[in-house]
């Protein structure tokens, strides 16, 4: 699938991230279709489908070459986290976006936990090293902690930002993927 197809998918995903869905439609598993059609690209015609299931929007795009990419927003974005970058234990997903195609898989998930930012970052450092990723960088400021890890040979990477929430706990973002 071409870069233009993924850009179109990302744009559609952003447009569909808002909106509701009734429980009867959501209970069908993939939710209800809210849009579908085709888009002319310089490589030919691409097909798209947009489905809404509660707070999760799913955009599926099939390019002129037959390759398919899928993008999700909302809580469903955690489905696209690679095995080497799982969601923090006990975390509550509060948003995000993710996708996969024949060339890779990845996503960004925003989450909250009652644990301190230091504990979240330490957990991800250990998980990354256990998965064979090397710590590429760390940053600590009074407001935030961050860690980045990668494995250049397998083209896997992750980055986590964690900040203390007012009243306790942590608000964090995890970005992880493969190429």
Would you state the CATH class of the largest domain?
Alpha Beta
Separate helix tally: 3
Global structural class = alpha+beta
Major β-sheet annotation: 10 strands, antiparallel
The helix-strand sequence is HHEEEEEEHEEEE
**Beginning-to-end CA distance, first to last residue:** 14 Å
**Strand content of the residues, in percent?**
over 45%
CATH topology type of the largest domain: TATA-Binding Protein
> Roughly how many Å is the radius of gyration?
18 Å
Task: Report helical residue fraction.
Answer: 10-25%
Signal peptide: 1-19
Keywords: Signal
Protein name: Lipoprotein
Organism: Sphingosinicella microcystinivorans
Describe how the helices and strands are arranged.
Layout: H1 3-16, H2 23-26, E1 32-41, E2 44-53, E3 56-62, E4 68-73, E5 92-101, E6 104-113, H3 117-130, E7 134-140, E8 145-151, E9 156-164, E10 170-178
Organism: Sphingosinicella microcystinivorans
Keywords: Signal
Signal peptide: 1-19
What would you note in describing this structure?
The protein contains three helices and ten strands. It has a ten-stranded antiparallel beta sheet with strand order 1-2-3-4-5-6-10-9-8-7, sandwiched between helices. It has two domains: 1-66, no CATH class; 73-179, TATA-Binding Protein, CATH 3.30.310. The chain is globular. The protein has 179 residues and is an alpha+beta fold. Residues 1-19 form the signal peptide.
């Amino acid at each position: 699938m071409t870069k233009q197809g993924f850009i179109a998918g990302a744009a559609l995903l952003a447009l569909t991230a808002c909106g509701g869905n009734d429980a009867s439609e959501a209970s069908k598993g993939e939710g209800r279709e809210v849009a579908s059609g085709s888009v002319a690209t310089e490589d030919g015609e691409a097909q798209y489908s947009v489905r809404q299931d509660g707070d999760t929007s799913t955009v599926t795009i099939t390019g002129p070459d037959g390759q398919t990419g899928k993008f999700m927003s909302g809580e469903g974005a955690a489905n696209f986290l690679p095995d080497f970058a799982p969601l923090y234990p006990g975390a509550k997903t509060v948003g995000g976006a993710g996708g996969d195609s024949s060339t890779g898989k990845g996503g960004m998930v925003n989450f909250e936990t009652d644990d301190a930012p230091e504990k979240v970052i330490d957990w991800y450092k250990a998980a990354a090293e256990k998965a064979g990723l090397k710590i590429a960088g760390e940053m600590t400021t009074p407001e935030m902690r961050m860690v980045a890890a990668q494995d250049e040979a397998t083209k896997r990477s992750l980055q986590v930002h964690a900040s203390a929430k007012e009243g306790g706990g942590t608000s964090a973002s995890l970005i992880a993927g493969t190429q």
